[in-house]
Amino acid sequence: MDLLLAPKDRAAMESRNNDRAEGNSATYEIKCVHKNGSAVWVEIRAIPYRNACGEIVGTQATVNNITARRESEQRLQEYMVVLEFQRNELEKANAELEALATTDGLTGLKNHQAFQECLSEEVQRALRHGQSLSLVLMDVDHFKHFNDTHGHPAGDVVLKTVALILREVARDTDLTARYGGEEFVTILPETDIEGASALAERLRASIERHYWPLHPVTASFGVAALKHTDICGADIIARADRALYQAKAAGRNRVVVDG
C-alpha cells in the first residue's frame, strides 16, 4: 500500500519508534492517507529484534489494514449516540404523558385520579406507622352564579387563580389537587386536625383578600383527620365532605372541622 501520514500521526509514529529503540514492544493503530486520497486505518505490531548478545538490531513489524473494523466501530458509535438520543427523547415523552395523565389541564394541579392514588398511599402509610394525616376539602362559593353572570372564561380565570393561591400557601409536603368542578382538595401528611384547620384558615383568608376585579370570591372549607378506625381514603373524604357541607350551610366563607 502507498500510504501517507499526517504530521501529527508522523510525530506519534516517531514516539513509538523511540519506544522500540528502548526495547519495548508496541501495538498501535494509526490513520493514514492512501495515494488516491482515501483514509486507511492500519494496525502496527512492532517487536524489537535482538541478536545473540541481546542487542537490538532491528524491528519485526506486521501491518494490518483495519479500515473496515474502524469504520464499523465508528458506525456503531454513531448508532449508539443516536440510540441514546432517542432513549432520552422517549423518556421525556413518557414523562410528559405521565404528567398529562395526572395533571388537571386547566389549573396545573394534580387531577382527581392522581389525588385518589396519593390519598390511598398516604392513608396506608399513616395507618401503618401510626402517623397523623389530614384532609382539607374546599369549594369556591357561588361559583355557578359567577359563571352564569360573567361567563365561563372568567370562571376559568378564578379557578386558575385559586389554584395558584392554594399552591403558594400549602407546604411542599402537601398535595393539592382539583377534586372536580370548583372543588379543590389538599392532603396534609403528618399533620393533625389543628394544623390542618390552621392551614385551611390561611387558605380561606388568602382567597378572600385577593383582588378579584369582577366580583369578590370566597371559599368554604371542610377539614377532617384520619382516624384509627378508617380503612381507606373514602372514610376521611366523607368526613371532610360533611364538614364542607356544614360550612356552606352556616353561611359559606368559613372553615368547619369534622367532629
UniProtKB/TrEMBL annotation:
Cellular compartments per GO CC: plasma membrane
InterPro entries recorded: Diguanylate_Cyclase, GGDEF_dom, Nucleotide_cyclase, PAC, PAS, PAS-assoc_C, PAS-like_dom_sf, Rev_trsase/Diguanyl_cyclase
Gene Ontology biological process terms in this record: cell adhesion involved in single-species biofilm formation; negative regulation of bacterial-type flagellum-dependent cell motility
Superkingdom: Bacteria
Pfam family, one: GGDEF
Entry-linked SMART domains: GGDEF, PAC
PROSITE patterns per record: GGDEF, PAC
Gene Ontology molecular function, alphabetical: diguanylate cyclase activity
Stated name of the protein: Uncharacterized protein
Protein species of origin: Capsulimonas corticalis
